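Lab notebook, bench 4. Still working through the backlog of constructs that have no structural model yet. Next entry is a single chain of 520 residues. Request: give me the structure tokens for it.
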Amino acid sequence: MIPLRQSFRFRILALTIIVCGTVLIAFGVGSRYALYLIKISTVDQSLRSLPFQGFPHPDHQRSWARFSEATDRIASRILNGDVHIVVYGKDGEIYFESEYWSGEKMVALLPAPEGEFKSATSPETERESSPWIRDPRRGGGPPPEIEPDSNREPPEFSPPPRGEGGRRGDLRGIRPLGPPELLTRKSELGPVRFGVFRFGGYNVAMGVELSQVAQEMNHVRNAFLYSAPLALLVVAIGSWIIASRAISPIRKLTNATRGLSARNLNDRIEQAGEDREFSELIQVFNDMLERLERSFNQATRFSADAAHELKTPLTILQGHLENALQEAPDDSDQQRRLGMLLEETQRLHGITRRLLLLAQADAGQIKVTGKPIRLRKLLAEMVEDFEMQSPKTRYTLAMGEDATVSLDESLVTQILQNLLSNAVKYNDDSDPWVTIGYEVAESELRIDISNGGDGIPESAQERLFERFSRVDTARNRGVDGFGLGLNLSREFARAHGGDLVLAKSIPGNTRFRLTLPIDT
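Model written out:
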């Protein structure tokens, strides 16, 4: 199984999740911050609008109490929270604090007042903070003159009586010197948003707890945390589907390449309906297959033609050598030389015959004709022949019940002869042995041929079935052969629809398994 980290589709999935996850986190953080700024902006706007008619003077305690109650009622509807109000002077002196004020320590965190404090009994202050002022345009007269008297109580800030026409006069408190300074400070109850209004010698701070805003931000955060995994899951599924569809032409090429062999070089991949980039890749692949097919056909024709052309002169040469060998004097040098020439000619004739068979196998021209074969009889006859060729070798037939199968007797015989010949050649010199067994299971025939010897090195097992490949050991260098037998045997097995494999190879036991489909 290919590890996921080496999968192109998995890398697309991982990169998509990383990119989308990063974008999603950035969007969530940015949206939460923007929403927080909007909430704070709403609080700031409410803080600016709460003192729409000014403030009482710090000396008017009862007026401040009524002002605080009225402000709380308005703030509960607008801000859904309590309002902290404090009036403080330069030296930290507190003139008034509301019920929800969070403590004296908070005053030190607020901006210090500027200017000189004027008491409520001074003429300027009494005129600015008069309990009411009649507007002459609304039927009221000018305000009465108030003589300064330091012995009397300061007037309270109270709603004016109704003027002429049944309407109240204009209520005008002391106006701040400018717009409020907006800032956030932490208290024991949490963060508080303040609007600090400046006056001469004192400041008025009105604050709103941001617990409601923090709670809403927590709801937004929790909603994001709950929805983000689901969103990433949808992204992962979508990216997996998109990646699968994107690499479908690659899978098509992979399957075509995996099934590529000499017998289907004429197959082509359909490129209709594919994207332009993949269509070009498929076209290049099809062109490559066409070149391979042309080159392979030329090589196959050359091999077949060469083997066929060599067959006739070799047969003639072999015949002349046999005649010359019979006419040569017995035990003469001429007879020995002619014998060596005849032996090499026969070897060359065998090579050309095998090359012709391999060319036919590569071209898919090996014809398989099945006919009933009795396995026990076939194997027994082959063992008898090899016992005569190598009498020192112990042969063991481990066969079950006799069975009649439909196979190409000529091809199967060549496969078994190659396997038995190798088993005898590469056996143990001191105690050579060969075991032949077969088993018929359902619609499959399995024939095992085992032998002794040193075994096949692990480094040579991978190229064991390659053409002209031989196990290069010091013990086997003198063994006759061309390295074509196993390759040719496998081709014959695959022509039947079966296979030939090395089942086991350890020192003292090497076993090949021939598997063939049969119709019993």
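Notes after review: The chain has eleven helices and twelve strands. Residues 51-131+171-209 form one domain. Flag for follow-up if needed.
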